[in-house]
Sequence to fold (576 residues):
Amino acid sequence: MRRTFRSKLLTCTLLLLFAQHGAAQIRVGFLSPLVKSHLAGEVSTVPDWTISTATGETESVQLAVAAPSGVGDQTVTVEAEVPDGAPFAVQLHLVGFVETVAKDRRPWAKEEGIGHVGWWPDPLLPNRPFHLAAGETQPVWVNVITPRGAKPGNYAFRLTVRAGSRHWDAECKVTIWPVEVPQEQYFRNAAFLPPGNLSAYYQPQGGIVGDAFFSLYKRWVRKAFTQHLGPTFDMLMGWNDIAARTPETSGPLGPTKEMLTDPGNGALVWPVMRSGGEYDFRRVDELAEIGREFGMRQYAIAIFDRERASSQIPQREKDEMAGLLRAYAGHLRKQGRLREAYVYNVDEPPEEQWDTVKENYRFVKSVAPDLNTWLCLNQPKAVKDLSPFTDILDVYIRQYDSSQAETARRSGKQVIWAVCVWPHEHPNLFIEYPGADARAIGWLTYRYGISGFEYWGLNQWGDNVYNRDWANFEAGDTRTRWKRTKWPWGDGWLLYPGPGGEPISSVRFENLRDGFEEAELLHALAERGAKAQADALAQRLTPSIEGYATDPARYAEARLELLRLASGTPTAERQP
Fold:
């Protein structure tokens, strides 16, 4: 018998219980996770909030704590009390702030203006007591984490806000729906997580080849996969012949010197090792096992230099690359996994490099005919000319229509799409862009039938690789000392370095994850025979790349409808 549940979501009601008489010295209310609250000034909140959760996912809400003008500084704490035996966990984070200035790089300013200048919310810092000054609003990020196998039903937990002898209680009711977000992710999302940047920041004992760094890196890999953006671009990379760079400037298009595991002989990079002329893939295999827990079935094993034409690469270097590719392909072929691997061709090649792109494609196929290639293009006119010379086509979301990539997708070509500093149009992942931009990407990916989403950097930190006191992780102010890079704020990083090697998420990454959790549910719904309903829902929320919804309330409504459809709950039982 099919079980149905009334759609009373997670309802949070402020009880405003005072520990002493007199007017409240702070105000408390709830915010959508899509709202970016600035540190100073008033923010519109609501006294109660409604959330729903499937199993196997994380759902978020913000608790805004505000101090009216004219009151003194206060020290505030926020705590969560979860009943014993509750089938979910609650995590609290203080929303941290980065400071923008008027002269920061904003390619959108000509069309949209500069917008707010000052403190912007992004890093999700560890929960601890915080200072709240008069006229300030501090958001607290609340994550409700529901594991797979959790029993559907209605539950509750309590949030307590304390300021001196006063306290405010927010009782939160949780309804777990009989719906599960699959552990094995359908969408082939990909990001770079340059290991050299992590090693430079944390400086682990033994360096990048030591056990301490490997343990740390695995923790970051797992975090990225739980956020639905696994670092499959470079976590299994074995060859990068782009010139080595410093940690401040390194990344996907250039390793650090520390990453070169055989500096005198080719461009072999960690985690592939070599000893006595033999390649060592043991760490590759261990990292791959983490990815496969989340359904990983596509990853890069090598990348070509984007700065040199094929004719400029010495034959010895080509022979070294061919040797690595043969060894790596042979290793994967024995495991029955070679079709998962690909070689990343010249990144965003200008027209003078198009012949090199074609030569690189032929080179890979001559070494291993069943090894795939990936090509990222940022010129719409390149798609028609170069599509025959790649197995995986990567285009930018705002160039999808103008590049006619849909024609390639309909012909059977696998198409991935991306955002970056250029093109800068919405949707994008800049800190100064609305939260709905990040949330919409997952819905649009499902809506257009795209194989997955790629992003060029989870930890492209620039000078922050040596900025180890960028935040106070113990107490006090949530204003950080994070430095801007040469790109617009947030471009190239979705994770921040936390204490003890802990990855710190961001407001943008949480919203991106939520969108892809919902995209996974849309795909699962379609696979169960309700594709027309899933498509119609995505069409209403994200009718086009240029016309997706921006109102947070629209996403809340669409999510409710998605969970109702996925659980098979009749429309008549939508409301309690």
Notes: The chain has a mean pLDDT of 92. The first helix runs from residue 109 to 112. Residues 398 and 425 are 7 Å apart (CA to CA).
